[in-house]
Specification:
The protein has 160 residues and is of the alpha+beta class. 39% of the residues lie in helices and 23% in strands. The strands form three sheets. A four-stranded antiparallel β-sheet has the order 6-7-9-8. Strands 3-4-5 form a three-stranded antiparallel β-sheet, with helices on one face. The radius of gyration is 23 Å and the shape is elongated. It starts with a strand and ends with a helix.
Length: 160
């Protein structure tokens, strides 16, 4: 900052010396490449019970997409088809539930279906354009058709 007197007035001149640069989060797909994991990692991070729940949900995925496989990444478990990531749904197993993430644009129709079912939703991810749904074993047993619908819609959106 510099101050100059011009007649009876003082003028201030500001010069920017350094900008603060904020770095965003590492893209999850990029980070997954640098930190591969496996099923054992997730069984330790979550529990075998929630991994089993994720497996049952994945069986619903395979009903409509028999060639896909699970891809174990550091921050989430995604899908592989023909050796390439195809994450129209993702899973984040925790200790007592699985965060299920179908990639769907936010809509009143989907919001209403989730509200009617009474499943717990987390904040919609605008960054990744996906719903985040907290699924327990009980939720999946009671609302398997809802989850099947969401999985099929997400796959249809991805495939056009």
């Amino acid at each position: 900052m510099q101050a100059f007197q011009v007649g009876d007035h003082i003028t201030l001149v500001f010069t920017k010396v350094l900008d603060e640069m904020q770095r965003g989060l590492v893209d999850e797909d990029e980070d997954a490449i640098s930190a591969p994991t496996d099923r054992a990692y997730w069984e330790e991070k979550a529990t075998k019970k929630t991994i089993a729940l994720m497996d049952r949900m994945f069986e619903v995925v395979r009903e409509g997409d028999p060639n896909c496989e699970l891809k174990y990444n550091k921050f989430y478990i995604g899908l592989l088809r023909d050796g390439r990531a195809n994450n129209y749904v993702a899973f984040r197993p925790k200790k007592s539930f699985v965060v299920f993430e179908p990639k769907l644009p936010r809509s009143d129709e989907v919001d209403a279906m989730l509200d009617t079912a009474g499943v717990e939703t987390l904040e919609y991810s605008t960054r990744w354009a996906n719903y985040r749904i907290r699924v327990t074993d009980k939720d999946f047993k009671e609302h398997e058709d809802l989850f099947r619908h969401l999985i099929n819609e997400a796959r249809n959106q991805r495939e056009g």
